[in-house]
Amino acid sequence: MMASSFRDCKAWRAGGLPLSTSSNEACKLYDAILTQFVKWRNDETLGGFEGCISALQEADPNFVMGHVISTGLELVSTTSSTRLNERLASAVRRTVELANSQDISPREKLHVKAMELFSRGHFPKACDVWEDILVDHPTDMLALKFAHDAYFYMGAQTQMRDSVARVLPHWKPHMPLFSYLNGLYSFGLLETRLYDQAEKVAMEGLALTPDDAWAVHSVAHVYEMKAEVDKGLKFMESREKDWQVSDVLASHNYWHWALYFIEKVKIVMSFLSQANSWQRCKATGSMLDTVDACSMLCRLEMEGVCVKDRWRELLQVTQPHTDDHVTLFNDMHFLMASLGAKESGTSQRLLEGLQELAKEPGDNQQHQLAGTIGVPMCQAIMEYDQGNYNRSVELLYPLRYRVVEIGGSDAQRDIFNQLLIHAAMKSENKRHQKLGRCLLVERDAMRPSSPLTERLMQRALALHN
C-alpha cells in the first residue's frame, strides 16, 4: 500500500480535483508519480517512476488520468516519436478510447485532449487546452507542469512565466507541492530577463524546500546570464548535497556548474568525469542529459579542447534518435554529435529527414518551423564543421533573433550565439570579421565582465591584426 502522505479519492475530491476511479491506491500512486515529476526525482522508496506506473496500472487498469500521466510523461520526455514508436502511439489511442467509453469529468476530458494534441506535435494547441484547465482548476499541478514543459519546447518564454503567475494566488501553503511553484515561476522570470526577481523568488522557494533542484537550477541560470561566475561556482558547490538527490535533473545541474568552469577556462573534462555526465547520459538515455553532453563537447571544442573520442561515445546515444524529429532543439544537438564523430551519413540523413517533414508538416509545430529555421540552422552547423565559415554566417546571422523558437533556455541556446561569433571571426570576409567584433561588444553589454567574452575579444584582435 502507498504511504498515507499521498492523496486518496477523498483527498483529491476535497482539493477540488476529483479523479474518476474508485481505487484509493490508484489515486495515491497518481499523486506519487506527480510528486516525483515535480521534484525531478525517482524516489526509490516508492519504486521510482517505473515502479509507480506499473503499480498504478495494476491498481486500476482503466483509470484515465493514470494513462494521461504515464503516457504524458513519456511524450514530454521527447525520447520517442509517435510517428515511429507504435507502442507509444497505441498508448495514446488507448487513453482516448478509455476516455470516450467512460463518464469522466470535463477537466479529465481536457487532459486527454491536450495529451493527444501534444503527441501529434501540436504544442501550441495542447498548451491552450492545459490553460483552459487552469482557468477553472488553478491548482491542477499536472496541467501546469505539462504546459510549462511544452512552452519550454517552443521557446515561449513569456507564456511560461505568465502561466504560473496566473495561478499563484490560488495556491495556499498547506497544499501539497506548494513550495515548488517558486522554482517554476522563477524560471519563467529569468527567461524573460527579470533576473533579480527570479533570484529572489527561487531563494524563497529554497528557504521552504532546500532540495528543490529546479529552484537551484533557476539560480544557476541567473548567475550564468549575468556572468557572475564566482557567485555561481560558490552557490552550486554549497548546495550540491541538496540537489544531487534529484537524479532526473542532477546531471543538468552539473552541466550548469561546468559552464562556469568553461568561463574561467579551467579544464572541464576532469569535472565532467567527476559528475558522471557521460555515464548518466548513456545509462538514462534522458534527452536532457544527452543534449547537455552534445552542447558541452561543442563548447569545449570551440575552446580548443580535443574531444573526438567523446563524440564517438556520445554517437551511440544520439544515433538511434536520428529519425525522431520530436524537437528541432534535439535535432541540432544530435547533429553536433554525428558531425563530431565524423559520421557524415547520419548527419546527412538527419538533415534530409527534416527537409522531408518540412514539406508537409501538418499540425506539428516543430515541423512547421523546420523549413524556415530548423533546416538552415542545421546547414549552418554543417558548414561550420566543414570550415565554410562564410556560408555558416550567412545562414545563421539572419536567424539569430528567431533561434528562440527552437525551444530550450537562453543558456542552452547561447551555443548558437557562440557558434555565430566563432564563424564570423574565422570567416575570410572582412565584413563578417567586423560583425564578429560587433557581436562581442553587444555580448559584453549584456554580460559585463564575462571572462569568455574577454577571451574571444582578445582572439578577434589577434586574428585580424
Automatic annotation (TrEMBL):
<keyword id="KW-0677">Repeat</keyword>
<protein>
    <recommendedName>
        <fullName>Tetratricopeptide repeat protein 38</fullName>
    </recommendedName>
</protein>
<keyword id="KW-0802">TPR repeat</keyword>
<comment type="similarity">
    <text>Belongs to the TTC38 family.</text>
</comment>
<dbReference type="InterPro" id="IPR033891">
    <property type="entry name" value="TTC38"/>
</dbReference>
<dbReference type="InterPro" id="IPR011990">
    <property type="entry name" value="TPR-like_helical_dom_sf"/>
</dbReference>
